[in-house]
Amino acid sequence: MAESGGWHTIESDAGVFTYLIENLGVRDVQFEELLALEPEYLKQLSPVYGVIFLFKYQMGQNRSEAPIDGHLDTDAPNHMFFANQTIQNACATQAILSVLFNVEGKQIDIGQALEEFKEFTDGFPSDLRGEALSNSDLIRDVHNSFSRSSPFVDEGTRKATEEDDLYHFIAYTPVHGVLYEIDGLQPAPISHGPCTKDEFCDKVIPVIQRRVERYPPGEIRFNLMAVIRDPRITAKSIGDEEMLAREEQKRKDWARENELRRHNFVGFTYELLKGVVKQKVQDGTYDDWIKQTKADNLKKAMAAKKGESED
């Protein structure tokens, strides 16, 4: 996998992912974070097109080895969209597209730009699909528009080491009657057996549970999001005004949070601190303020150390 080449990290967040795909031209699709690994909970969000799973990547894994769960399907149909991840930091958007591009029929509208990209790469081997995705100016620019603004050097510009905590996105979705795990770091899609779209919720949850159970007890750094139809469509169709208002407010909150992500507040914080210091100097309370701050920090440090010794 190459270095980032201009791709930045983005958060695993339902609002980020929803507005990301809308900016790519996708219509009537939304992401919802799953707070419980229960099939019935997932079914409440139907129709579910797939799920995106974020987990801590364990360095040193041999990609040539057979998967612990499921099997590499090297005979998967070529018109199924599977792309090798060829560049760092692109895995979130790549996992999202792996669901959207594999939804069968006309269940969703992915927009003209993505439809053209999908048609252009149809028949490509997985490595060339990955290269095409990584080199797409449109997809990269939209992806990067949802990265947090920072005045510091982006971590994505350096190559990861074994000391880093690395996280990776993969997708699970039913394709042509098979439950597939789509991971761009694997040489092929991983089949988890027969699965219709109606069986997806029942069959995908045990697969994810088995994967989580392979981690040490206490490991909680996972995130799971469902790719679903926009709930506002259902709310309008059944006349549920309360549900519609709730979903509209959620969209407003997401829009505000995404706007904040585009800005960094280091400069503002610096100017604010300068103002506070100036006021303290003018009041003649600067020295006392510094002494009190040091005393408070020492007290907190001692309390924390005491708590560690009692554990």
TrEMBL record:
Annotated site residue numbers, Important for enzyme activity: 183
Site (Transition state stabilizer): residue numbering on this chain: 85
EC number annotated for this UniProt entry: 3.4.19.12
Enzyme kind, highest EC tier: hydrolase
Single biological process term from Gene Ontology: ubiquitin-dependent protein catabolic process
Record-linked PANTHER family: UBIQUITIN CARBOXYL-TERMINAL HYDROLASE, UBIQUITIN CARBOXYL-TERMINAL HYDROLASE ISOZYME L5
Membership in a protein family: Belongs to the peptidase C12 family.
The protein, known as: Ubiquitin carboxyl-terminal hydrolase
Protein source organism: Orbilia brochopaga
